[in-house]
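Long-time lurker, first post. I've been practising inverse folding by hand and with some scripts of my own, and I keep getting stuck on stretches where the structure tokens seem ambiguous. Below is the full token string for one chain I'm working on. Before anyone asks, I'm not after the true native sequence, just a reasonable design that respects the backbone. If someone could post their per-position residues I'd love to compare against what I wrote down in my notebook.
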């Protein structure tokens, strides 16, 4: 037998005053429910719109890079007549300090005519990494601008502004975004796996002046530290003043690397560092370091 105190009451079981109060509360609850559903629907539509825009933009950006790749080696803009005006590249250019810069490699002259911030091209075979590398006066501009200098969250790969492609450095550093679309430097973190490294042991990086092939040495995670932090900061390694300083950088990177490639370097060797965001910690970075072999 059911206890009367636990029986479920119907609205009609209450007096008229209580029924009115209950109906008011029910109407309020229904309004809150509808507002919540509407709010969630707006979030869903906004999210779908954002991701739709993101992937459409990413696809467009990827298509543009494919077009740029096809221009490598093209003479579409590289053989303009000297008298025709803008775009012509002299075989040698004179700087204010009377220092002559090297020739721009013929295969990159068309691209260089399109954007004089072009500093090179990087490619890792059998991956999506096949992009122009830019260089600006700072390390901010190409985080949010594409090759055509238009606003673009995907940005461009870019060489550290402190690097000097004319005279060379102990270590070139190239930065790029880690995108959910998989483009730019997103696949760098695959180098965490030694088996992936063995399938992709070399990197091609040409400056606009010189071709280069690099052998992967190290792959590790790091982060951007506060200026006052006393830690190994891979992003400060561009040039060294002594064998001891160079070897110190090598030891730090070797100790942080996920595996031993057996590749070593001494001061005088030319290195290449690729850096992208890593979301396993705040301000995290994934880093791949390689040595020039030809």
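-- Answer (accepted) --
I ran through it position by position. Result:
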């Amino acid at each position: 037998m059911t206890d009367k105190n636990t029986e479920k009451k119907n609205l009609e079981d209450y007096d008229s005053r209580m029924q009115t109060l209950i109906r008011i509360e029910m109407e309020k609850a229904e309004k809150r429910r509808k507002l919540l559903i509407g709010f969630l629907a707006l979030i869903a539509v906004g999210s779908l719109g954002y991701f739709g825009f993101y992937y459409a933009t990413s696809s467009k950006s990827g298509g543009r890079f494919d077009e740029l790749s096809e221009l490598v080696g093209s003479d579409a803009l590289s053989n303009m007549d000297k008298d025709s005006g803008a775009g012509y590249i002299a075989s040698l250019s004179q700087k204010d300090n009377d220092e002559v810069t090297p020739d721009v490699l013929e295969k990159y002259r068309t691209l260089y005519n399109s954007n004089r911030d072009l500093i090179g091209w990087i490619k890792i075979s059998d991956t999506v990494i096949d992009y122009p590398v830019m260089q600006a006066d700072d390390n901010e501009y190409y985080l949010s601008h594409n090759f055509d200098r238009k606003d673009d969250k995907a940005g461009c790969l870019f060489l550290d502004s402190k690097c000097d492609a004319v005279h060379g450095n102990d270590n070139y550093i190239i930065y790029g975004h880690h995108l959910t679309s998989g483009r730019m430097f997103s696949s760098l973190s695959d180098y965490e796996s030694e088996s992936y490294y063995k399938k992709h042991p070399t990197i091609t990086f040409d400056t606009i002046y010189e071709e280069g092939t690099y052998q992967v040495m190290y792959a590790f995670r790091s982060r951007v530290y506060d200026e006052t932090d006393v830690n190994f900061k891979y992003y400060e390694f561009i040039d060294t003043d002594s064998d001891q300083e160079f070897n110190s950088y090598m030891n730090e990177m070797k100790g942080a690397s996920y595996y031993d490639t057996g590749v070593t370097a001494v001061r005088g060797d030319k290195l290449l560092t690729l850096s992208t965001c890593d979301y396993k910690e705040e301000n995290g970075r994934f880093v791949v370091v390689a040595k020039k072999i030809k």
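A couple of notes from the structure itself: Residues 78-94 have pLDDT under 50 and may be disordered. The beta strands are 118-123, 130-134, 157-159, 171-176, 202-207, 213-223, 271-278, 284-292. Happy to go over any region you disagree with.
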